[in-house]
Specification:
The structure holds 2 protein chains of 2 kinds. Chain A is α/β, with parallel strands linked by helices. Helices cover 45% and strands 16% of the residues of chain A. In chain A, 42% of the residues are buried. Chain B is globular and about 75 Å long. The chains are: A alpha/beta, B mainly alpha.
Chain lengths: 377, 285
Amino acid sequence: MVGRLQRREFFAFCVRVDKTFNRKGIATMKRRSFLNLAGATAVGLGFPMMARAQQAKRFDGITLRTNGYGGESTRVFREFVIKPLREETGLNVEIQDGSASGAMTQVLASPNNPPFDFVMGDSPNLPALIKAGLLAPVTVEQIPNIAKIRPSAREFGEFGVPYLTNAVVLTYNEKHVQTPLKSYKDLARPDLRDSIGMLSPENTGGILTLLGLAAAYGATLDNMTPVFDALRAMKGNIASATSSSVSLVQQLEQEEVVAGPIFDGRVNNMRAKGLPMRKVIPDEGIFALYNTLSPLKTSKHLDAVYAYINRVLTDEVLTELMKAYRYAPVTDVPISADVAQEITINAETVNLLKPVDWTKVASMQGALIEQFKKALQ
Amino acid sequence: MHKSGLRFGVTAAIPLVFLMVFLVAPIVLVFRSSLSDPAASGAGVSLFQYIRFFSDSYYLSVLADTVLFGLITALLSIVIGFPIGYSLARLPPKQRRWRLLLVIIPLSLSLVVIVFGWLVLLGRGGLLNDVLLWLSLIDRPQRFLFTRGALLAVLLQEFLPFMILSVMSVVSQIDPVLEHASASLRADRYTTFRKVILPMAAPGIVSGATLVFILAVSSFITPEIIGGNKIQMLGSTIYAQVLTVLDWPFAASMSFVLLAITLLVVALTNRVFKPLLSVGVNRAN
């Protein structure tokens, strides 16, 4: 019954289509004319689509490998850099999370066949890579958005592309510390006995802390003795010195320690969680480093690496990275009011930023670590 | 005979080649690196890195601390691990299964997770302080983290299962009839333990203690996080030299010092406990 009904309906539909075609003259079209029309339609519709497809898949089949810091940073890169690039160009990027120094070690251990196409590292990581001749120079012709970077941020000239600034500031828990901290010298205050947590110089933040202490105690890179003397004197105040920012944050959150120098973004994160942490720019000024992206010479897909870095330097991505950590950007990207008030380095404070000779620091990092540990032992 | 000999040779050659490539060759390369001469850009042969290590009191104190932590951890693991391993071995298999699971589960967890768990537990606002406050044993939160005691406790917790499993595997092979026989000869529990159980379980105790010692002296994450950089062990010092300072020859020399110390302790242990071990083996046979 149903089958008969469907056949009848199908017949009626065919009749209607036949009538429609006859009205428009299509049914009476000659075979040659039909083929010409079909061919022209295919050319008209198909070619632009094919061209578009070819243009959109410029890096189709290419996979780049890099290291990452993990957490929010990797999330922003995945969501706002890798995903759009994959959709636009077919480029695939794999991020291997871990410490930057660990990634650098992997690259230095196998310079001819490193596991990455480009590396994400901090300013102190770059001198060793430059010295080993592993980095590919980058120019504005290759990465147009480099033009937006403030010239002072390009610490290593044609090597490494900075995108964010991380500053070390002083922080303290308002609940436990009644007198605000103002200077690195305050870390030695008697009321802070067994209360200070800090980063050791294995961490780049620890190096910046030593530089801050050097400014406070009149030391220079050529003579750091006053810093280690001061550390020895304030040893009773330093409850812990860790090489991990995450570990220091955990100690501050658990009130295991209540004050110390730490990266500004970490303080911002703790404040965002509602912890009573105050952020102080020390009297000695701001010691900061840049997060950089550096293409490796050995990469077979440098064009793709440049496209990736160019994408990172867009206002959209830098804004998202700022939102995540409240770290200052290296370009003049517009900053919303709520984000701006949390950012340490801005138009008013940029003059407090102290220059750092990272090549010299890198050459003496081993000695700094050794002296630091001896001072705290 | 000839064919089976050939088959045996081929079968043995595979793991031998594997060991040569992935164990012996890297060790040789690391050793070569430890002898590199900084004056000749690493090309020559020199004892510079070893002299640097042994002439600095800081590194010697780190080495002493490392060996001390290893020995104390091993000794404590015997004291705590032996009774547990023994009782597990004497339990019926059905009852043993679940208890054994509790011993093995910590081994399946990442060391980093365990260490961060301890941070929460031993913190000023942590469980231990809460319990002690609740029991009125302390009037305000105390610092337990970043102390030698805390480091020892964490190292012990991490490596205790190795001792328990080692003791259990040996004790389970000792026939309980021997203990009954000792009792029937009017030996009290202590004498039975001293004269029968301990000598026969000695191989398990020594191998367990050796394992715990080796694992403890090569720790680097635990001293780094729980010690808070105030307590240094050689493992974390080597880690920093490799990953941060990038001074691989010095790290290599420290690795070989650690290896030498470990082998020395193992050799001494075997020498000291040789009579006990041979008694244990003979009685088991």
